[in-house]
Amino acid sequence: MGHAGHATLGTPEILGLAGAPLPLTVPARIYVCGITPYDVTHLGHASTFVWADVVSRVIRTTGVGTVLTRNVTDVDDVLTRAAAERGRSYEELGLVQEYCSTRTWPRCASARRRTRRTPATTSTT
User: Fold this and answer.
1) What is the pLDDT of residues 5-49, one digit of tens each?
2) Which of 7, 11, 19, 39 could form a disulfide with 1 if both were Cys (CB 3.0 to 4.6 A apart)?
3) Dist. CA 13–CA 64, nearest whole Å
């Protein structure tokens, strides 16, 4: 059992939190709410990758693999406002900023793990 609610490692495929077992699917599926691509990549974007990496590493110490899915919020008031200010469509601005962000992350160790899927908010699949 962990101290003050800290996660503790149990038997394979079981993770404990505050003394209660947290059974995991195999592989463990992690969904990460991704960026809203309206401007340059910033520290807030990095926090998403860092916490997902930490969770993934903790889960993998139990012997369970992980599958990561990260979305891109391509419809948002901030994005549409930024696009209008630049005289662009929100689709164009979102794609350009998502591309720039994706090119930045390979330099960040926490983001090097392969994301299985990166659906956009407007995706139907």
Assistant:
1) 444 444 455 788 888 888 888 899 988 887 888 888 778 777 887
2) 19
3) 6
